[in-house]
Write a structure and sequence with these properties.
Membrane topology: Multi-pass membrane protein
Enzyme class: oxidoreductase
Shape: globular
Number of strands: 6
Radius of gyration: 24 Å
Catalytic activity: 2 a ubiquinol + O2 = 2 a ubiquinone + 2 H2O
Largest sheet: 4 strands, antiparallel
Oligomer: single chain
Family: Belongs to the alternative oxidase family.
Keywords: Electron transport, Iron, Membrane, Metal-binding, Mitochondrion, Mitochondrion inner membrane, Oxidoreductase, Respiratory chain, Transit peptide, Transmembrane, Transmembrane helix, Transport
Order of helices and strands: EEHHEEEEHHHHHHH
Length: 339
């Protein structure tokens, strides 16, 4: 069976009685196995044109016979550790759970993202670019963001690990809100979005992966978690209303938020270089997500995260400029894959 969607191709071969009955000789013995063994072959390939090519391919062969529509799924975030028996879940629907392996043959242990969603960050991006506020809305957006930074500086001081954690819980909201509202608009108007729905949701997912990374570095205290609940609840609703009222204002606010994020991560790097923050080994999830070398450190992670924020800055200021010129986002192709 062959299924194809976009640039992803999935090929699955099942050794059912009907299939094996049509194979004879070496072909049946060599490829499909013998007896009642069941082989499942899955081939994935996906490529992008942004920041070079991103390719990931895996071949998975499972020879364990499935009974009574049971599927084996790994518990937690990935593979079962230490040879622990995997949990079996009764599945009436028969949805297949593909086992994915990395290029070196080791098992892929992340269920929250896949190898073809990884990339290498573009560190050459200009970090000093700034949109000078000239109109009333621009000045309102700029000073709104500046006022939000003051309580953050007071609360976190120089605890940049916890500051990054809080920052990412907020930074992941605009892309999701914008993508959701554009999605509904596209449905109401029966029109394409120009790729902006995907681009904004991609931005939200990228910011969420920043949070998943820093959760491994900074362990938040209970009151910091409570603060996240409060800030996210207020910010989500405020940004939702702002986007409904004026998308160009909402995107400009996000652009200035990303500029502040760049500044915060630059300060984070300074503290690492001074030795005030221990430059520990990079979390495994960061190494796989950004395709970093195995010996990468926290400093390397902060570098790629800062580069991502610079790309989000450009995208949102660009989106705001489109609206300022009297156009809609769908009138200009979205920078999909532009992290």
């Amino acid at each position: 069976m062959i299924m194809s969607r976009g640039t992803t191709t999935v090929v699955r071969l099942f050794s059912t009685a009907a299939v094996t009955g049509s194979l004879t000789g070496p072909m049946r013995t060599g490829f499909m196995g013998t007896g009642s063994e069941k082989a499942v072959a899955t081939w994935w390939m996906k490529s992008y044109s942004v920041v070079g090519a991103r390719n990931a391919s895996t071949i998975t062969l499972g020879d364990k016979e499935q009974h009574d529509n049971k599927e084996t799924v790994a518990s937690g975030g990935g593979a079962a550790a230490g040879g622990e028996k995997e949990k079996e879940v009764v599945s009436y629907w028969g949805v297949p759970q593909s086992k994915v392996v990395k290029e070196d043959g080791t098992q892929w242990k992340w269920n929250c993202f896949r190898p073809w969603e990884t990339y290498q960050a573009d560190l050459s991006i200009d970090l000093k670019k700034h949109h000078v506020p000239k109109t009333f809305l621009d000045k309102f957006a700029y000073w709104t963001v500046k006022s939000l930074r003051l309580p953050t500086d007071i609360f976190f001081q120089r605890r940049y690990g916890c500051r990054a954690m809080m920052l990412e819980t907020v930074a992941a909201v605009p892309g999701m809100v914008g993508g959701m509202l554009l999605h509904c608009k596209s449905l109401r108007r029966f029109e394409h979005s120009g790729g902006w729905i995907k681009a904004l949701l991609e931005e939200a997912e990228n910011e969420r992966m920043h949070l998943m990374t820093f959760m491994e570095v900074a362990k938040p205290k209970w009151y910091e978690r409570a603060l996240v609940f409060t800030v996210q609840g207020i910010f989500f609703n405020a940004y939702f209303l702002a986007y409904l009222a004026s998308p160009k204002l909402a995107h400009r606010i996000t652009g200035y938020l990303e500029e502040e994020a760049i500044h915060s991560y630059t300060e984070f790097l300074k503290e690492l270089d001074k030795g005030n923050i221990e430059n520990v080994k990079a979390p495994a999830i960061a190494i796989d997500y950004w395709r970093l070398p195995a010996d990468s450190t926290l400093r390397d992670v902060v570098m790629v995260v800062r580069a991502d924020e610079a790309h989000h800055r450009d995208v949102n200021h660009f989106a705001s400029d489109i609206h300022y010129q009297g156009l809609e986002l769908k009138d200009s192709p979205a920078p999909i894959g532009y992290h």
